[in-house]
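Run log // design_07
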C-alpha cells in the first residue's frame, strides 16, 4: 500500500467562495474509543472529537476547516451533513464518556452546527435533540434537515435559516419502528428510511422538508437493512448489515420509479456491509464491509481487516467487479467523483483512497488521522 500522508492544518478558507471548488467531504473523528481483540475500550483522557473538512481534487485532498464537535461510531456513518451551498454542516453526537465512569460510553443527544463560511470555520450552535441522533440529512433545497432517532422511533425536523438550525419538531414513525438511516432523493421529493429490526425500507413522499406519513410503501430487501444511498432520482441501494455472525451479507438495488417501488436485485458481498455509496454517474456502487474484523481473534470467522467491494450497475442488476483491503472496523464509504472513492477505517484511523480504472480498484495515498478515528462523513448534495 502507498505511504500514508498526514494532513497538516492549512490556511482555512471561506469554502463557498472558491470559483473552482472541488468536492467537499466532512469527516467526523471519534477520539474516545478503540477495539482491542473485539472488546470496546474507552481511551483515557482523549482529546475532543473533531470534524475535519477536506476538499478533494481527484485523489488529492487538502484540509480546509477543522472544528471540535462531538461524534461517535454508534449508528450509521451518514451522521454528518453539509448544506448544498457548502456554508453549514451538521454533526451528530450520539455518544459521550460517562461523567460517573470514564471507562464507559453513554448515549448523548447533541447536534453541532458548524458555520463553514466563517474565517475560520467555527461552531455556532450545539442543539440538544432530546434523543440519540443517528443519520443526518439536509434536504437538497438546504432549508430543512432530518435526523433519525433509532431508540425513540422518531425523526427530528430542523429548519435552517441564515446559517442556523432550529429544532422545529419531531415525527413519530410508530412504536418499535427503530429508524436508522435516512436519505433524500436528488430532487428532494422523496426520502428513504431504513428500519433494520423490521427488515424494511420505507419510501416516503416529502413535503416542506417533512416526511409524509404513512410511507408510500415499505420494501423488504435483506437482513438488517442499514445504510442507504440514491444513485439517481429513481434508483437507490441499501446495505443489509446482517447479524455479525460470519454469514455472507448482501446489498440490494431499489427501483423507485412509478407508483410501485420495489427491490429488483440483491447481491452477496461479504460479512456486515457498514456503508454504501453510488458514483455520481450511477454506474458503480461501493460498499465497505466490516468483514468480521470487529470480533475477537479466536472467533472462527475473524478477519484482520475490512474490505471494499465495487459493484457495477447494469441492466437493473448489481454485479461485483473488484475488491480491496482496508483497515479493520470499516465505517462509511463515498465517491469523490466517478473515478475516486474513499472508505473509512476506525481500526487504523485512516481514510483509504482508491481510483477506479476500468472495473479495477487502484490504491492511492491514504489519509491517516492522529487525533481520532473516522466514524462518519458527509458531502453536499450534488
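design_07 sequence
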Amino acid at each position: 500500500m502507498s505511504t500514508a500522508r498526514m494532513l497538516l492544518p492549512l490556511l482555512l478558507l471561506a469554502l463557498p467562495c472558491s470559483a473552482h471548488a472541488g468536492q467537499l467531504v466532512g469527516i467526523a473523528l471519534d477520539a474516545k474509543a478503540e477495539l482491542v481483540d473485539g472488546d470496546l475500550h474507552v481511551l483515557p483522557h482523549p482529546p475532543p472529537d473533531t470534524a475535519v473538512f477536506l476538499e478533494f481534487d481527484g485523489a488529492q485532498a487538502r484540509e480546509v476547516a477543522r472544528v471540535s464537535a462531538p461524534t461517535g461510531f454508534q449508528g450509521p456513518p451518514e451522521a454528518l451533513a453539509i448544506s448544498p451551498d457548502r456554508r453549514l454542516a451538521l454533526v451528530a453526537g450520539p455518544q459521550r464518556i460517562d461523567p460517573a465512569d470514564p471507562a464507559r460510553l453513554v448515549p448523548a443527544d447533541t447536534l453541532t452546527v458548524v458555520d463553514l463560511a466563517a474565517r475560520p470555520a467555527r461552531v455556532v450552535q450545539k442543539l440538544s435533540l432530546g434523543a440519540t441522533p443517528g443519520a443526518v440529512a439536509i434536504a437538497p433545497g438546504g432549508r430543512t434537515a432530518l435526523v433519525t432517532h433509532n431508540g425513540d422511533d422518531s425523526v427530528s425536523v430542523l429548519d435552517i435559516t441564515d446559517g442556523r438550525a432550529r429544532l422545529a419538531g419531531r415525527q413519530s414513525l410508530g412504536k418499535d419502528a427503530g429508524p436508522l438511516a435516512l436519505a433524500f432523493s436528488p430532487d428532494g421529493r422523496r426520502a428513504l428510511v431504513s428500519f433494520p429490526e423490521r427488515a424494511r425500507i420505507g419510501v416516503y413522499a416529502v413535503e416542506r422538508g417533512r416526511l409524509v406519513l404513512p410511507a408510500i410503501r415499505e420494501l423488504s430487501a435483506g437482513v438488517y437493512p442499514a445504510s442507504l444511498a440514491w444513485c439517481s432520482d429513481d434508483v437507490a441501494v441499501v446495505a443489509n448489515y446482517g447479524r455479525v455472525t460470519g454469514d455472507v451479507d448482501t446489498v440490494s438495488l431499489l427501483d423507485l420509479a412509478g407508483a410501485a417501488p420495489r427491490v429488483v436485485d440483491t447481491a452477496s458481498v461479504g460479512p456486515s456491509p457498514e456503508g454504501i455509496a453510488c458514483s455520481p454517474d450511477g454506474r458503480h456502487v461501493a460498499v465497505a464491509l466490516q468483514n468480521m474484523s470487529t470480533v475477537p481473534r479466536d472467533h472462527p470467522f475473524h478477519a484482520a481487516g475490512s474490505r471494499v467491494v465495487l459493484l457495477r450497475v447494469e441492466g437493473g442488476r448489481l454485479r461485483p467487479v473488484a475488491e480491496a483491503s482496508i483497515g479493520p472496523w470499516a465505517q462509511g464509504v463515498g465517491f469523490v467523483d466517478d473515478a475516486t472513492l474513499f472508505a473509512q477505517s476506525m481500526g487504523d484511523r485512516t481514510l483509504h483512497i482508491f481510483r477506479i480504472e476500468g472495473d479495477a480498484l487502484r490504491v492511492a495515498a491514504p489519509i491517516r488521522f492522529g487525533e481520532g478515528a473516522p466514524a462518519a462523513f458527509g458531502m453536499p448534495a450534488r
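The domain at 5-378 is CATH 2.130.10.10 (Methylamine Dehydrogenase; Chain H).
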